[in-house]
Amino acid sequence: MEKYWFIFLDSNNLLLKKQEDGSLCVPLMEKEPIDVFRKIHSLGIVNGFESYTFRACTKEVPYGFESVGLRKSFNYLTSEFYTVAGRAFQIIFWDESYVYCPKCGAKLELNTPLSKICRDCGNEIWPRINPAIIVLVSRQGGDALLIHAKNFKGSFYGAVAGFLEIGESLEECVRREVREETGIEIDNIRYFASQPWPYPSGLMVGFFADYVSGDIKIQESELSDAQWFNVANLPEIPPKLSMARMLIDAWKLKVLI
C-alpha cells in the first residue's frame, strides 16, 4: 500500500519528488525511497493515505527528487501538506533533542507517537511548544507600526514579536514587547489568529493593538529600524506563509474598505 513519506535530510530540508510537469510533491510510495537514520514516526492519515516521517541517513538527494527547505516548501505544497510537513519536522526535532531523561539522565524510550518515557524514574516527556506573540499596532490616520529586526533574513519589515515569559499572560507579553522594542504604549489588544511555526517548535499568536502614546525609540540590540507606514508607502513585507503577512494583509483590507 502506498504511503506519504515526509523525509528530512540535513537541517530542515525536505525531500520532494519531481513530477513530470516539473512540480514537486511529497513522495507517495510503498517503501521509503532512502535509508532511515534513526526511526520512522507515524503522522496518521493525510489525504486518505497513511503518512510517516523520518531523518535520512545521507544528505545525498536520490535521482528524481529535490531537496527543499521547509520554509520554501510553502511555495510547492498545498496548505494541508505544508502544515503536516511542519508537524513532521517538529516531531523529528523533538526526537533528536530529547534522548536522555532531564530528571535522572537515563535514556528515554518512545511511549506513544507523541511522548517518551524514562523506564528508570517514570518521567514522561512530550514535545515542547514555545508560544510567541506577534502584534500589528495601528494609529489614527491609518498608519501601522512596522519593524525591521536584526535577525530578519532579508530587507522586509514585519510586526513586533517576542516569546512569552514565565508568569505572563499573552496580553501582558504584547504590551511588554511593544514597549521594550519601540518605546510606545498601546491599548485595545485584540486577538487575530494563531499559527504553528515549526522553526523549530513555535506557536505564533497574532494580535492587533491601538497606539496610545510615546515616540518610537528602538531597542538597538533587537531592531535596526521601526517606522509608521500607511498603505500607500509600505516597504517590502514578509512572504505569505507568515503571521506577520496575515496581519498586514488584514490591516490593509480594513483600511482600504
Describe the structure.
Helix content is 18%, strand content 37%. It has helices at 79-97, 170-182, 243-256; strands at 3-8, 13-18, 24-25, 28-29, 41-46, 49-55, 65-69, 109-112, 115-117, 124-125, 130-139, 143-149, 160-163, 185-197, 202-213, 223-229. Strands 1, 2, 3, 4, 5, 6 and 7 form a 7-stranded mixed β-sheet that branches. Strands 11, 12, 13, 14, 15 and 16 form a 6-stranded mixed β-sheet that branches. It is globular. The protein starts with a strand and ends with a helix.
Short description:
The protein has 257 residues and is α+β, with helices and mostly antiparallel strands.
Please give a handful of descriptors for the protein shown:
single chain, 257 residues, alpha+beta, six-stranded mixed sheet, 16 strands
